[in-house]
């Protein structure tokens, strides 16, 4: 019976399409339909008013997705009003939506106001509006708009989010048992942030903690306590509190005060900087900690083999300390110099960075003289940029810098600058020195290769950065290295990129740093990966990585070779050979990445001394947290277990939810509300709504267009969404909020009857209490209801107004072929 009913619905739908084709259009854009094609007893009792005029929308309020020149910019509640002639309707554009169009001033003046907070774009030449399938499409000629970059969302459309509280964490636990009884120990470490969003302000506290069983030492520190807010129309960020100076001219410095700086993430992609990467090799499942001046910047667990950390913040600059802690308790350390592209600025634009405050240390005490610091970059022309800056703390310390940048077009970009310092030592001696720097970057798109950064820096013996001056004068650290020369280069190249069976990638890195007062350090390495085909087997891949680090007189060599053969969908069998300082260990491996939320790998082999070894790695992404678990075993040596737990908690006036998180401080997050319906999967099963219908999609990249998606194919059969995707652009640290109308319940056929025993007209709409459409009335009052529940009250509308309500009987069942519903 249900099959017959559904077939009839499809037949009626086809007839409605025929009606549309059998329409006659008039000069006033009104369309009359030939209803004779409908097999209906009463052809006069049909509500096709919303189809009778081209793009006609009955007057009222509608929640619509807004597209501007094809680009989605979020949802708006749009009011439609009748025109003075009464035969048409038009959309009322609010002042907030007009601002989001990013019109030039002369175009903004042409927009006419119809009513209070109701504007019309019809007076803007060339502008057009069209409503279809819940979307309001606004097309504006590009000549009227401020910006023209398809890959960038202008600041008028950024969303500061809503008020709320947040807490993010990353916890790492390690247990190691040495079989010879020499050292058994365990450790727990963690870092993260907590804070609140109030309007455009973000209040944050960053923390780190650790516990080591061998000395029972427990530590907990607040790295920073600060507040910041984005200033979109200035492409800048204002920060108050404990700050790390983030300058492209001067070295990093911790201070307490104020900072106002251009935020390059707000700029078009071509003008944004370079986010640092950390490459290395882990001999076993290992914990990798990246820190700067004692502050943990990033911490994670990596499986044995080559690793590449790519999600560091672009605001991290200067020298990073990398510590790789193996599961047998051994550690290796090296340093990475973060690189910046040449300091170029678009023509006529000025980028700036101004700070004022007092240097501070980790116990939050002030130490040193108050200072001011500022730097800038001015786009003189399409090819040239002038940049520089100054720092001063009175007679104690001062520095000045000047440089030029040049866009070499096909040859890349280059910049050169000089910084001169004047500092007073503890004995009163005044030192005067200069530091010179050269930077170069080039991306060769046509050759699938790039020189990410190449640089040279030379500092005279008496040159001091402000951080070096403070260390020497107030902390008496005479062992602090004073840089002399530094060479650094990072490059990559992909050969045969268009042929998947032959694609080969090469990565090279080299850093050399020597000092005036201590030993030099070097780090260089390379990695090569290749995919190829053997007979009928395609997708075979091989990789070779080798790194050498010479730091403080200690040399570490690491080599890794891997070979993998496909064993099905995202499954591989492989051979891994690793060598560290002459000690090698071949391992057979099996990897299964077929489920994005459950990734795992196991390996087994033997060392060159014949000792068996095995290890495993498992990553679980759940709604509440991301869990990385690993275990290692080496015969006659040790057994170890490690776990990393990453997650967060976000609460707003709309609800609260736990979620996974990368525990970074610069990303935004999106809270999703599904009207109390739980179990709704989002964004490729990365998140799922809880029992209260709330979920949080974490790690949204700030100032980038982001799609929040309902995984329709993975929805339960009894859930009907009103839409499946929403697009927005969030500012740094924002808590976004999106409502997805949902109906959950049965699917059933019903007949609607009015009090006089007539039926609602063909084309009437049925809505639930949340405003989600659950049916359209067909012939003889028939309606196929989807996502409804017993005792639920539904609203029936036609002619642009709510006309009556129906209440489903208790115990309604979709097995019932037809249900009579009085509409009162």
Describe this entry's structure for a reader.
It is a single chain. The protein has 824 residues and is mainly beta. Among the domains are: 2-148, Ubiquitin-like (UB roll), CATH 3.10.20.410; 154-221 and 636-739, Sandwich (Immunoglobulin-like); 745-823, Immunoglobulin-like. The strands form twelve sheets. The protein has a 24-stranded antiparallel barrel. Strands 5-4-3-9-8 form a five-stranded mixed sheet, with no helix packed on it. The chain starts with a helix and ends with a strand. The relative contact order is 0.09.
Helical percentage: under 10%
Q: Please, what is the CATH homologous superfamily of the domain at 154-221 and 636-739?
A: Outer membrane usher protein FimD, plug domain
CATH topology of the domain at 154-221 and 636-739: Immunoglobulin-like
> Could you give a short account of the major beta sheet?
24 strands, antiparallel, barrel
E-strand count:
56
Q: Count of DSSP helices?
A: 4
The CATH class of the domain at 154-221 and 636-739 is identified as: Mainly Beta
Strand content: over 45%
Structural class: mainly beta
The residue-averaged pLDDT reads: 82
Low-confidence stretches: 1-35
Based on the coordinates given, report the CATH architecture of the domain at 154-221 and 636-739: Sandwich
How would you classify the quaternary structure?
Answer: single chain
Report the C-alpha radius of gyration, rounded. 32 Å
Write down the overall geometry. globular
Distance between the termini: 28 Å
């Amino acid at each position: 019976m249900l099959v017959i009913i559904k077939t009839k619905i499809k037949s009626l739908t086809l007839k409605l399409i025929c009606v549309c084709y059998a329409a006659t259009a008039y000069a006033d854009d009104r369309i009359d339909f030939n209803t004779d094609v409908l097999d209906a007893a009463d052809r006069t009792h049909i509500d096709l008013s919303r189809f009778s005029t081209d793009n006609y929308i009955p007057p009222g309020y509608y929640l619509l997705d807004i597209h501007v020149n094809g680009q989605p910019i979020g949802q708006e509640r749009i009011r439609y009003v009748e025109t003075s002639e009464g035969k048409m309707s038009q959309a009322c554009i609010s002042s907030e939506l007009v601002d989001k169009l990013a019109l030039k001033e002369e175009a903004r003046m042409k927009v006419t106001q119809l009513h209070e907070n109701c504007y019309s774009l019809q007076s803007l030449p060339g502008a057009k509006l069209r409503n279809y399938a819940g979307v309001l499409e606004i097309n504006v000629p590009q000549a009227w708009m401020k910006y023209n970059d398809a890959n960038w969302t202008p600041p008028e459309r950024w969303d500061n989010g809503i008020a709320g509280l947040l807490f993010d964490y990353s916890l790492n636990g390690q247990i190691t048992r040495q079989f010879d009884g020499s050292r058994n120990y365990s450790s727990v470490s963690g870092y993260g942030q907590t804070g609140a969003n109030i309007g455009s302000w973000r209040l944050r506290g960053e923390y780190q903690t650790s516990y080591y069983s061998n000395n029972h030492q427990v530590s907990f520190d607040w790295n920073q306590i600060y507040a910041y807010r984005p200033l979109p129309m200035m492409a800048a960020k204002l920060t108050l509190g404990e700050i790390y100076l983030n300058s492209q001219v001067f070295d990093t410095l911790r201070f307490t005060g104020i900072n106002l700086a251009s935020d390059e993430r707000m700029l078009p992609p071509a003008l944004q900087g370079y986010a640092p990467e950390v490459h290395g090799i882990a001999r076993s499942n290992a914990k990798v900690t990246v820190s700067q001046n004692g502050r943990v910047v990033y911490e994670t667990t990596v499986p044995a083999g080559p690793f590449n950390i790519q999600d560091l913040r672009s605001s991290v600059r200067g020298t990073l300390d990398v510590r790789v802690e193996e599961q047998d308790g051994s550690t290796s350390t090296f340093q990475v110099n973060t690189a910046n592209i040449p300091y170029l600025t678009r023509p006529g634009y000025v980028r700036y960075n101004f700070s004022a405050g007092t240097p501070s240390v980790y116990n939050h005490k002030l130490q040193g003289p108050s200072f001011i610091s500022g730097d800038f970059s001015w786009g003189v022309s399409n090819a040239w940029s002038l940049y520089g800056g100054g720092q001063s703390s009175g007679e104690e310390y001062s520095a000045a810098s000047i440089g030029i940048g040049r866009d070499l077009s096909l040859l890349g970009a280059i910049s050169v600058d000089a910084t001169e310092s004047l500092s007073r030592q503890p004995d009163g001696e005044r030192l005067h020195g200069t530091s010179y720097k050269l930077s170069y970057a080039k991306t060769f798109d046509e050759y699938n290769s790039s020189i990410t950064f190449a640089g040279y820096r030379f500092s005279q013996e008496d040159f001091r950065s402000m951080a070096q001056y403070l260390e020497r004068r107030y902390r008496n650290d005479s062992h602090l290295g004073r840089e002399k020369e530094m060479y650094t280069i990072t490059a990559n190249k992909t050969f045969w990129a268009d042929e998947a069976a032959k694609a080969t990638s090469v990565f090279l890195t080299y850093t050399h740093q020597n000092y005036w007062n201590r030993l030099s350090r070097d780090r260089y390495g390379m990695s090569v990966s290749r995919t190829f085909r053997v007979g009928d087997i395609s997708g075979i891949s091989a990789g070779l990585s080798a790194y050498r680090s010479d730091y403080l007189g200690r040399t570490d060599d690491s080599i890794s070779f891997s070979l993998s053969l496909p064993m099905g969908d995202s499954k591989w069998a492989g051979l891994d050979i690793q060598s560290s300082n002459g000690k090698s260990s071949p391992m057979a491996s099996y990897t299964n990445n077929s489920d994005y939320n459950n990734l795992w790998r196991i390996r087994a082999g033997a060392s060159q001394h014949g000792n068996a070894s095995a290890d495993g790695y498992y990553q679980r992404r759940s709604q509440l947290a991301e869990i990385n678990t690993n275990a290692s075993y080496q015969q006659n040596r040790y057994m170890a277990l490690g776990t990393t737990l990453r997650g967060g908690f976000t609460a707003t006036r709309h609800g609260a939810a736990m979620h996974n998180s990368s525990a970074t401080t610069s990303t935004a997050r999106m809270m999703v509300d599904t009207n109390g319906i739980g179990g709704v999967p989002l964004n490729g099963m990365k998140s799922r709504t809880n029992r209260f219908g709330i979920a949080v999609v974490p790690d949204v990249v700030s100032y980038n267009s982001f799609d929040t998606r309902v995984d329709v194919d993975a929805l339960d059969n009894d859930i009907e969404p009103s839409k499946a995707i929403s697009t927005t652009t969030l500012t740094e640290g924002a808590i976004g909020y999106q409502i997805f109308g949902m109906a959950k319940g049965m699917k059933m056929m019903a007949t609607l009857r009015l009090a006089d025993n007539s039926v609602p007209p063909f084309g009437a709409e049925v809505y639930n209490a949340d405003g989600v459409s659950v049916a359209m009335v067909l012939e003889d009052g028939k309606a196929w209801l989807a996502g409804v529940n017993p005792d639920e009250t539904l609203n029936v509308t036609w002619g642009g107004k709510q006309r009556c309500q129906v209440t489903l009987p208790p115990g309604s069942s979709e097995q019932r072929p037809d249900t009579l519903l009085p509409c009162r």
